[in-house]
Automatic annotation (TrEMBL), chains A, B:
This is Bifunctional protein FolD. Its EC number is 1.5.1.5, 3.5.4.9. Keywords: Amino-acid biosynthesis, Histidine biosynthesis, Hydrolase, Methionine biosynthesis, Multifunctional enzyme, NADP, One-carbon metabolism, Oxidoreductase, Purine biosynthesis. GO terms for cellular component: cytosol. It comes from Actinoallomurus bryophytorum. The keyword NADP applies. NADP(+) binds at residues 170-172. It holds the Pfam family THF_DHG_CYH_C.
Amino acid sequence: MSPAPTARLMDGAGLARRIVERTAERAAALTRRTGTQPCLATVLVGDDPASVTYVRMKRARCEKAGIRSRHIALPAATTTAELVAAVDALSQDPQVHGILLQHPVGPHIDERAAFEAIAPEKDVDGVTTASFAAMSFGLPGFVSCTPGGIMRLLDHYDVDLAGRHAVVVGRSAILGRPVGMLLLGRDATVTYCHSRTRDVTAVVRQADVVVAAVGRPRFIRGEDVKPGAVVVDAGYNPGNIGDVDFEAARTRASLITPVPGGVGPMTIAVLLDQTVEAAARGIHPPGV
Amino acid sequence: MSPAPTARLMDGAGLARRIVERTAERAAALTRRTGTQPCLATVLVGDDPASVTYVRMKRARCEKAGIRSRHIALPAATTTAELVAAVDALSQDPQVHGILLQHPVGPHIDERAAFEAIAPEKDVDGVTTASFAAMSFGLPGFVSCTPGGIMRLLDHYDVDLAGRHAVVVGRSAILGRPVGMLLLGRDATVTYCHSRTRDVTAVVRQADVVVAAVGRPRFIRGEDVKPGAVVVDAGYNPGNIGDVDFEAARTRASLITPVPGGVGPMTIAVLLDQTVEAAARGIHPPGV
């Protein structure tokens, strides 16, 4: 007989829905008050099917929340200079309040240069170095959407972070690194593990909070979860499989995010929320 | 009978001397070739005796290395706006290649705003958010001097970092946070401990590499050092006492930095080296 689940589920889908509802209300009020609708520009290079799907979904969610979207589709052969110019034009355009550059952009493009062309005040996806530094030092600015969504989930479930050991598995520029910095800013003891870590299992076993962001299906085994730990699965692998062995982990964790319905919906909710926030700061009503 | 020391000393003073010699040669060659001497601007607010001493020492080391220094002394009552304006003027001044704002600047000043007024290409002390992001993502830019000095020491002693567990004790914006990011960039598994960490001892005991940057005398006890670990003491407390109990730790470590003569001299060497590098990039010879 296998052990019964002990973990409470962290309902990202439900929390995201409430955030998006509030965001939609705010977008509507802003549009009424200023005559300008918040606008997110999406930029897609090439026609990678997953990227096409992601962008389409994000645009649909914008529309539903009363956020206008403007889509820039660029051919796969776009150069770095052309992409930077396109993003730069959006950064200059007063009608655009937020910019989302769908990534990956293709190996021939300098992705960092393209990200840096996003004006920090329009970086609602939190991908610029300015946003990373803001997250790292607790300065004003936008957060990377998945890390931001994770923090909102942890807060919603009253997870005490101060002095707890948070282990981040993965160190990408838009997920692992920034979520570690946000956790550190909340007084957690933070460990970054990654592909070169010698004994990930031994580290994860010590974690009070695990953030799995490695992109390998069921990489975190149930037996590696410390009893009572909080498990956040930011992985999303083919077949709706997370980075955590959910069924096994939920018999040991105190709180756990499901996949799907955990971190994923929170990511989009933060994107929409930050877009409306950028618009609220960026729209100057007529006569002002 | 107490155990014999096992650790080899990391001779920061000696390595720093060699770096400064090369830097001085490079400064002289640059001055000969361009007719312009590399110049570091130092900015000091108020008359805190320790800060006055630090700035004086840094200027003397500049002069000895053939780097001109220009000193801006501002009264303790300087406002944030006044300091930002002073730093901004130096950022604009083509005769100035590097800028060092001595900190702390006093509680009434927004230190971050003052740091951000330093043009990234003159941020030879590595204090801007742009420099932090560059360190975090392995992008071109200057490093914070003490973290940069620590990495050079580790490299000089051929410390293998990939997959090793590096524990950083302390999370300041110019030491703990950036050195952790540099170690992560070199494929170490990195843990940040700090004042809110529940059991620092338990974490430090697992470290293959310890970086002590907490500012508390002998905070790391010898018994907490894993046998064979590499111990870097970036602490500097009154009476030339480090953050590590040196005599006890050297009986267990494989490599250890003394205090003084370890990390301290490396910090200044990196400052001088980066100033000449900034000058080499920033000086445009007549007619070019």
